[in-house]
């Protein structure tokens, strides 16, 4: 099952609802739900200790039950034994001979749990709480069950509190009752219940104790059950029809002066009428929007100036019509009537049995001008009709959801995941630079002498020592042309006998000229020394990659999310693959599997194969691909196009969520402001890494270039980032379309200045010394870095460590892709006899929603992505949905469920 749709599994944990219009924050309809208790995580040792404690408590509850039940039958002998030994618990560890020497005629202990059971039961039932001590047994059992199985039979906190309250109440109550029969404690109430009653009796007397107990019990009933103490002391009278009941009423009761006394006027009556029309009750559904408008207009008119007699009629359709008939005046179309259906038509009923409605204030109608106005009358509802306040469903906001459930945690599915430890990486040294003072002095003198030979005087020179390169910064005297110094690059290299030097004239923002000279004994930069730094451990970057150390021996960490794509080039054997491993290792050490997924393309088939073990944690692939490391060119094309589909789908989600990038979208989703029922889900970052891009361009060409260019142009905002590596940075491999969208370039040593200009737009990469020495171009800046070294055994240990932990059921599934020839991630050729069991249910779901998407089937039917994808392909083969159309949902070919059922019936007959 894919983890793609795993959006709301925590806290039990999907809250369904509809987004309220015209509100800034998303709202959902409130549902009755309980927050699932999530057991806290323990270490292995703690988990073992918790399980042992749970078993101990369960066995202890059984021991209590055995001792207590046995004590009910053997309490006389047990108490006699304890009384004669005068030792109590101290006799538990004494031998029988010692006890018999001190006590004569010592009775035999008959408790099924022996001496321990007798002492235990006597302590609880006689010394303490009496038979109420039996409640300790379920408390111990529930506690042990909770610790052993990490789930509760009953609410733990309430069970413990209620049990102890019940123990006290029962003990005191039995002591009160037993006090009438004896003046000594008994096992029924124990000493606690007996002496508590004696203490209370001395203060308030027996009657006072009884009143206190009654008050305590009634208070408990009110707190637990909200007891209202309404007792029905009369029987219902015989029912009769509503029409007969109305005939029995006195006609004078509806006279104007009597009716005026019956009218109940509320200050907010008009508002209550409007609310009653707006609420979705069975009565209000009969009013159309035009009718509501007419009634609201009637509310603005003057009061009655004529007698209006309410009447109730029974129409043939079993409806009671309540209306106000002003017979002397002409009845208008706006005269209101309220109708409702009787639940049991054609049967006798009382007015109390009618459906409940709101109090309704009749509209006020102005009489003719020539008539003498009388006192205003506002008719009320018919007597006998009970008014019920219809409760409106309260809508809750995202802040209410966060307050109730907390923020959504995408890491909860793998809450026990542990990041790799630094011990898995080798330490190749402390990272301290060894300063060779003689070498520094000799190189400085040679640089000064060489420049002086060409009549170039300098004012000062200083050196900055790095792991592999030392930077000499010189300040020339006024009047010296910088270009003259740059032209002496080869001459200075000759005088220093160096492998290759690089002149930076001028140094950006410093006002100096830099000369980079390789060290005679370069230091290795280990990956461990870089990742162990506080700079990396406390970084707040979205996708931090630790590349190595600069020439000033500072750790350099870049944010891949800000680059946003990285183009890597370098000749064979210059450290390009190690650089990719460094990028992968940095992200594996920093990110959780729920936050990051890799799409690995390895045409060489051996460079990235070590990461196959983290497939169920960090890798993404097409639904039908067996291997998550993509090596076949055809699968690479399908995967790149699938990433384009994923990109388009993510942009649709961002558009619906009204956000601009992935970070804002996920923050909104974590704060529960997006509804998962509308397709929203937590979106992890996706990093595409291609180890040898030149091979793909030679074999596929435009089929690879087009999706790569699309991703490079658009994928940044939706969290899809590219790392493209090649050993031949020629213009036919790194085309202008691709190069324009990769502002960040990482160049290892190349063999010619042309290649250096192709990758960096400037020279310098041909002057590197190799073995991880690289130049990083980010916009206008060019930084020289010694790449951190991570060896193959280290990568293997990291992969083994992650792969051994619990992961998702499968790799992260990318959207299915079918090319023009019908090949790709899905196939539409299915045997009708092999259709899925949920085929018809999925077809009805698709037609009902008129949306042919795999995610809809996956979400509604709670299926994995693979099975949902097969069902959608079967629906396509059956002609229920249309073909795949990229980011758009498939077209549904059946307009309603009736036509679908006819088609499904035909399919059943054919099979």
UniProtKB/TrEMBL annotation:
<keyword id="KW-0131">Cell cycle</keyword>
<keyword id="KW-1133">Transmembrane helix</keyword>
<keyword id="KW-1003">Cell membrane</keyword>
<dbReference type="InterPro" id="IPR050206">
    <property type="entry name" value="FtsK/SpoIIIE/SftA"/>
</dbReference>
<dbReference type="GO" id="GO:0005524">
    <property type="term" value="F:ATP binding"/>
</dbReference>
<comment type="similarity">
    <text>Belongs to the FtsK/SpoIIIE/SftA family.</text>
</comment>
<dbReference type="InterPro" id="IPR036388">
    <property type="entry name" value="WH-like_DNA-bd_sf"/>
</dbReference>
<dbReference type="InterPro" id="IPR018541">
    <property type="entry name" value="Ftsk_gamma"/>
</dbReference>
<dbReference type="Pfam" id="PF09397">
    <property type="entry name" value="FtsK_gamma"/>
</dbReference>
<feature type="compositionally biased region" description="Polar residues">
    <location>
        <begin position="1"/>
        <end position="16"/>
    </location>
</feature>
<dbReference type="InterPro" id="IPR036390">
    <property type="entry name" value="WH_DNA-bd_sf"/>
</dbReference>
<keyword id="KW-0132">Cell division</keyword>
<keyword id="KW-0238">DNA-binding</keyword>
<feature type="transmembrane region" description="Helical">
    <location>
        <begin position="52"/>
        <end position="73"/>
    </location>
</feature>
<dbReference type="GO" id="GO:0005886">
    <property type="term" value="C:plasma membrane"/>
</dbReference>
<dbReference type="InterPro" id="IPR041027">
    <property type="entry name" value="FtsK_alpha"/>
</dbReference>
<keyword id="KW-0547">Nucleotide-binding</keyword>
<feature type="binding site">
    <location>
        <begin position="570"/>
        <end position="577"/>
    </location>
    <ligand>
        <name>ATP</name>
    </ligand>
</feature>
<dbReference type="GO" id="GO:0007059">
    <property type="term" value="P:chromosome segregation"/>
</dbReference>
<dbReference type="InterPro" id="IPR027417">
    <property type="entry name" value="P-loop_NTPase"/>
</dbReference>
<dbReference type="GO" id="GO:0003677">
    <property type="term" value="F:DNA binding"/>
</dbReference>
<keyword id="KW-0067">ATP-binding</keyword>
<dbReference type="GO" id="GO:0051301">
    <property type="term" value="P:cell division"/>
</dbReference>
<feature type="domain" description="FtsK">
    <location>
        <begin position="552"/>
        <end position="757"/>
    </location>
</feature>
<feature type="transmembrane region" description="Helical">
    <location>
        <begin position="160"/>
        <end position="182"/>
    </location>
</feature>
<keyword id="KW-0812">Transmembrane</keyword>
<dbReference type="InterPro" id="IPR002543">
    <property type="entry name" value="FtsK_dom"/>
</dbReference>
<protein>
    <submittedName>
        <fullName>Cell division protein FtsK</fullName>
    </submittedName>
</protein>
<dbReference type="InterPro" id="IPR025199">
    <property type="entry name" value="FtsK_4TM"/>
</dbReference>
<feature type="region of interest" description="Disordered">
    <location>
        <begin position="1"/>
        <end position="40"/>
    </location>
</feature>
<keyword id="KW-0159">Chromosome partition</keyword>
<dbReference type="Pfam" id="PF17854">
    <property type="entry name" value="FtsK_alpha"/>
</dbReference>
<feature type="transmembrane region" description="Helical">
    <location>
        <begin position="128"/>
        <end position="148"/>
    </location>
</feature>
<dbReference type="Pfam" id="PF13491">
    <property type="entry name" value="FtsK_4TM"/>
</dbReference>
<keyword id="KW-0472">Membrane</keyword>
<feature type="transmembrane region" description="Helical">
    <location>
        <begin position="202"/>
        <end position="227"/>
    </location>
</feature>
<dbReference type="Pfam" id="PF01580">
    <property type="entry name" value="FtsK_SpoIIIE"/>
</dbReference>
């Amino acid at each position: 099952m894919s983890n793609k749709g795993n959006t709301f599994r925590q806290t039990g944990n999907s809250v369904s609802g509809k987004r309220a219009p015209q509100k800034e924050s998303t709202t959902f309809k409130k549902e009755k739900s309980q927050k699932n208790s999530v057991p806290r995580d323990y270490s292995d040792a703690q988990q073992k200790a918790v399980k042992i404690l749970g078993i101990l408590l369960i066995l202890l509850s059984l021991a209590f039950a055995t001792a207590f039940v046995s004590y009910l039958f053997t309490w006389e002998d047990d108490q006699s034994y304890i009384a004669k030994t005068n030792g109590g618990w101290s006799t538990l560890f004494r031998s029988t001979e010692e006890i018999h020497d001190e006590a004569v005629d010592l009775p035999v202990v008959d408790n099924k749990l022996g001496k321990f059971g007798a002492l235990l039961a006597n302590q609880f039932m006689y010394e303490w709480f009496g038979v109420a001590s039996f409640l300790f047994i379920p408390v111990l059992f529930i506690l042990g069950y909770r610790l052993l199985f990490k789930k509760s039979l009953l609410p733990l906190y309430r069970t413990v509190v209620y049990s102890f309250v019940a123990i006290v109440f029962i003990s005191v109550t039995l002591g009160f009752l037993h006090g009438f029969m004896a003046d000594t404690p008994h096992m029924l109430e124990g000493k606690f219940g007996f002496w508590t009653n004696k203490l209370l009796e001395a203060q308030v007397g027996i009657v006072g104790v009884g009143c206190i107990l009654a008050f305590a019990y009634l208070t408990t009933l009110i707190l637990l059950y909200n007891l209202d103490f309404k007792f029905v002391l009369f029987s219902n009278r015989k029912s009769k029809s509503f029409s007969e009941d109305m005939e029995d009423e006195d006609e004078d009761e509806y006279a104007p002066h009597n009716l005026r006394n019956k009218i109940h006027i509320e200050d907010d009556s008009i508002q209550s009428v409007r609310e009653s029309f707006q609420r979705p009750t069975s009565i209000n559904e009969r009013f159309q929007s035009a009718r509501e408008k007419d009634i609201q207009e009637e509310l603005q008119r003057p009061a009655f100036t004529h007698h209006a007699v309410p009447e109730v009629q029974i129409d043939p359709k079993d409806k009671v019509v309540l209306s106000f008939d002003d017979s002397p005046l002409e009845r208008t179309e706006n005269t209101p009537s309220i109708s409702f259906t009787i639940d049991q038509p054609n049967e006798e009923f009382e007015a109390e049995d009618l459906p409940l409605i709101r109090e309704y204030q009749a509209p006020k109608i102005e009489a003719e001008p020539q008539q003498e106005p009388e006192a205003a009358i506002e008719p009320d509802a018919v007597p006998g009709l009970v008014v019920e306040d219809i409760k409106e469903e309260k809508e809750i906001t995202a802040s209410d959801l966060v307050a109730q459930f907390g923020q959504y945690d995408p890491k909860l599915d793998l809450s026990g995941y542990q990041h790799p430890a630094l011990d898995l990486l080798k330490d190749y040294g402390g990272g301290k630079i060894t300063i060779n003072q003689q070498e520094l002095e000799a190189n400085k003198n040679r640089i000064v002498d060489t420049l002086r030979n060409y009549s170039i005087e300098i004012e000062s020179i200083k050196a900055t020592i790095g792991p592999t390169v030392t930077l000499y910064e010189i300040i020339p005297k006024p009047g010296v042309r910088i270009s003259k110094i740059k032209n002496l690059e080869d001459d200075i290299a000759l005088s220093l006998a160096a492998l290759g030097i690089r002149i930076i004239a001028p140094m950006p923002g410093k006002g100096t000229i830099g000369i980079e000279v390789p060290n005679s004994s370069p230091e290795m930069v280990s990956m461990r020394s870089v990742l162990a730094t506080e700079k990396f451990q406390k970084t707040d970057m979205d996708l931090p990659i630790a590349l190595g150390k600069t020439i000033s021996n500072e750790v350099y960490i870049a944010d891949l999310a800000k680059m946003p794509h990285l183009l890597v080039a370098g000749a064979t054997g210059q450290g390009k693959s190690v650089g990719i491993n460094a990028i992968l290792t940095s992200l594996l050490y920093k990110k959780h599997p729920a936050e990051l997924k890799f799409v690995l393309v390895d045409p060489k088939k051996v460079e990235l194969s070590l990461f196959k073990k983290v497939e169920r944690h960090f890798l993404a692939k097409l639904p039908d691909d067996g291997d998550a490391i993509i090596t076949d060119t055809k699968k690479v094309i399908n995967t790149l196009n699938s990433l384009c589909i994923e990109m388009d789908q993510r942009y649709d989600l961002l558009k619906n969520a009204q956000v601009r990038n992935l970070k804002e979208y996920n923050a909104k989703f974590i704060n529960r402001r997006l509804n998962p029922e509308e397709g929203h889900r937590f979106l992890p970052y996706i990093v595409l890494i291609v180890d040898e891009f030149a091979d793909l361009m030679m074999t596929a060409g435009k089929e690879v270039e087009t999706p790569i260019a699309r991703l490079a142009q658009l994928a940044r905002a939706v969290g899809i980032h590219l790392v493209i590596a090649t050993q031949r940075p020629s213009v036919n491999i790194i085309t202008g379309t691709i190069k324009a969208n990769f502002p960040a370039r990482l160049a290892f040593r190349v063999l010619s200045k042309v290649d250096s200009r192709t990758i960096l737009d400037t020279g310098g990469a041909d002057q590197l010394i190799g073995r991880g020495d690289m130049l990083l171009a980010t916009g206008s800046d060019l930084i020289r870095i010694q790449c951190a070294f991570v060896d193959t055994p280290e990568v293997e240990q990291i992969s083994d460590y992650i792969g051994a932990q619990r992961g998702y059921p499968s790799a992260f599934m990318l959207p299915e892709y079918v090319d023009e020839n019908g090949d790709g991630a899905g196939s539409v050729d299915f045997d009708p006899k092999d259709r899925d069991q949920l085929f018809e249910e999925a077809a009805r779901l698709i037609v009902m929603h008129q949306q042919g998407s795999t995610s809809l089937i996956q979400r509604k039917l709670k299926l994995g992505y693979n099975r949902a994808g097969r069902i959608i392909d079967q629906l396509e083969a059956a002609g229920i949905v249309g073909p795949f159309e990229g980011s758009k949902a498939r077209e549904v070919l059946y307009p309603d469920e009736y036509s679908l059922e006819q088609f499904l019936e035909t399919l059943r007959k054919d099979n």
